[in-house]
């Protein structure tokens, strides 16, 4: 009875604040509609004990309830995320306290490696089911806006290689190389001698297979290695979708390591996610807490201002900054479409819990990028104090006709 009373009070209060195309179906057969239009999302509450998730509908609470099977949610992922965000905005505070707890956890080699394996070692076939054929798991580049995913991912890699002014025969270190697409492309286009490093055994295995298939084993080496253990110097260094795992407190050390590995006249690029909150808070309404628990354990996003400061502290000079937020929103939208189109196969490749995690994660990221809650920046840099004569006078070389 207490749960029913709480639910009635919540539903009455919600209707006074917002209208959403949502239907809630209760364990006792009761239906609650929150719009005059046909519901695009249905939440089924099979037991009275699950009411607590509804009456405090943060993104973390509702996401957790869905992932753990306490509630059932039906509808397109994009509609689900829109409805849940509306519920959260009408019912809970934007920011909680869990972010501070997550930030307090130290980043050790072991913890970082475990976090990488948790996210990336699901299975290569799982990722193959919804990524592009090149298995590129980072923001694509839509030069014209009408490219398909495979084309946009190839353009992204070429955009990076052009921006770092990759030249024939140079050496390249790709930190967090994924399944090897960037290193392979650099070797194919420029004859570069490449080292790609990852902490994921699944990624390393498939990346090596891709390298062998391309006939590039003499030019591309894929290592299972922590960036802190890499030696030598490289003409070019790329870090794509990697520094989010480093930890905000360790960014200066991370960029100092890149500076130490970079040749005196070398060029590096960091391509990574950032928070748009100037105070470095997690995405609102519990979205950041959900990502920390279920998707990227110990992942942290820094504001762009902090990234640039950390680069300078690490001995790097920022030369170019480009915002690709719109591009990542489109990338995540296409990933979500692929995920839903291949849902049957994906369910055979993992368990229901992980299927739900990635389903709401991809759609949630689309929403977050579209609404400027998170962003993506490419930052080109070189060693601080390097000779200006070695720098291009303009950005024209980045956008060849």
Question: What does this molecule look like?
Answer:
It comes from Massilia soli. Keywords: Lipid metabolism, Methyltransferase, S-adenosyl-L-methionine, Transferase. This protein is an alpha/beta fold. Helix content is 45%, strand content 17%. It folds into two domains: 2-91, 2-Layer Sandwich (Nonspecific Lipid-transfer Protein, Chain A); 104-398, Rossmann fold (3-Layer(aba) Sandwich), CATH 3.40.50.150. The chain is elongated and about 70 Å long. Mean pLDDT is 90; it is low at 97-104.
Which descriptors would you attach to this protein?
16 helices; 17% strand; elongated; Rossmann fold; alpha/beta; Nonspecific Lipid-transfer Protein, Chain A; single chain; 2 domains; 401 residues; four-stranded mixed sheet; seven-stranded mixed sheet
